[in-house]
Amino acid sequence: MNTSIWRKKPIDKLLAEKEASKLRRSLGSVDLVALGIGAIIGTGIFVLTGVAAAQYAGPALILSFVVSGIAAALAALTYAELAAMIPVAGSAYTYAYASLGEFAAWIVGWNIILEYLVAAAAVAIGWSAYFGELLHSIGILLPAALTRSPLAGGMINLPAVLIALLIAGLVTAGTRESTTVNKVVVVVKLSVVLLFIILGVRYVNPANWHPFFPYGYAGIMHGAAIIFFAYIGFDAVATAAEETRRPQRDLPVGIIGSLAICTVLYIAVTVVLTGLVPYTQLNVASPVATALLKAGITWAGGLVAVGALAGITSVLLVVIYAQTRVFYAMSRDGLLPPVLSRVHPRLKTPYVNTLLVGLTVALLAGFIPIDIIAQLANIGTLTAFIVVAIGVLVLRKTNPEAPRPFRVPLSPYLPLLSIAFSGYLILSLPHLTWIRFAVWMALGTVTYFLYSYWRSDLAPQGQRLKWRFFAPPAAKPRRIK
């Protein structure tokens, strides 16, 4: 125990907490790959591809996905090493606690909170858009006031609010139940993506790829930074560590396998999408269905809308699941209120924090536009990736003998390259994103020094008692009769 903000949590202590965890261990490698695909393929393909092509990269968005895919692959390798080495809930937050210390872990955890909450909200907004498209295809038109946020000219995005609350209820019901639903939905989602590629490639007009670089090299990198949001799903696999039966083997398989499958599909979909219609017409919340309709494949548009709804639902499920496990880990360490790590005795899920996450996501999705939300998610993700790569390098020096079932090849070069890629993408984000991020970081720093530092499990007991406002009340002395 010490008073430093850089105090570290020993790996053996983390592993001991994992063994004592009340969470149910029910996941295997297939579950984890499906979990990763469930989180990765969704909003990135069905929503953000159109916005990124129209506003940032044009047809060169194909290269933006390649750049983002390389950055994600490098980050996935570093995640795989630490996930197999420290198979504990919390993902990057936990790895930072073991390698860089408490304040770094707090900053990463705080960023992950931003990442997952706003990612889930963006996914819920995308779900609402496709739901509206589906209803419109059968002659039902929802009022604009109930499908748009106040900043987009409406009152509330009601479908987004309702789906967020519904998914939070499913995640609360149990991990096995959630992953079973996810696997079914992933099969539907992959079928629809493959159908879009097979149907759309016949209608591709190469003229739509000209000009290929309407926004230049900067547009490619800007687009890569924006659509990097699409790759955050493999991080969710790492949050399932404590509920995995054989984490040392299955976590690397889940992380790397899901990312490899999804990267190939992302690039293929982008090639077809930008070839179907001019990129300037893709600035909509449902670009895949819109592209098929504009190409004259009207019967497939409704089918894609159904598949997109299913796919985006799985993303929302996995992202909300991942956020609750990060809250669980941070609460167990004392950095967040203890109620967030309370596990339901029968369901074996952290039910209080799951319901809180669902409510927060519903409020964000109901009242904030998707473009603001997506930009906020990326910077938190990239910051976490940098810290994980640094953690690999640090633990190779400080814990060289610790068992590593998976090792990043060509270390330290690949971790350093991962840091460079993620850092460059951060610098490519808009200035307004940086301002919002700075406000969030300032709020997190204040929260840490006013609450988390004093309530941490690593804080000396005497030091914790100095701040009685945040400390539990002292027991009253018993009266001796």
Architecture overview:
- It is a single chain.
- With 481 residues, the protein is an all-alpha fold.
- Helix 12 (287-294) runs antiparallel to helix 13 (298-332).
- The protein is built from 18 helices and no strands.
- The model is unreliable at 465-478 (pLDDT under 50).
- Helix content is 69%, strand content 0%.
- It has a single domain (37-461), classed as Up-down Bundle (Amino acid/polyamine transporter I), CATH 1.20.1740.10.
- The chain has helices at 11-19, 29-40, 43-57, 61-85, 92-99, 102-137, 158-173, 175-200, 216-227, 233-238, 247-276, 287-294, 298-332, 351-367, 370-398, 413-427, 431-455, 461-466.
Mind telling me the C-alpha Rg? 22 Å
The helix count comes to 18
Largest sheet data: none
Mass-distribution shape: globular
The CATH superfamily is identified as: Amino acid/polyamine transporter I
Low-confidence stretches: 465-478
Tell me what portion of residues adopts beta-strand conformation. Answer: under 5%
CATH topology: Amino acid/polyamine transporter I
Calculate the mean pLDDT score and round it: 84
Measured between the Cα atoms of the first and last residue, the distance is 38 Å
CATH class: Mainly Alpha
Order of helices and strands: HHHHHHHHHHHHHHHHHH
Counting structural domains, the number is 1
Extended strand count:
0
Organism: Thermodesulfitimonas autotrophica
Subcellular location: Membrane
Membrane topology: Multi-pass membrane protein
GO molecular function, one term: amino acid transmembrane transporter activity
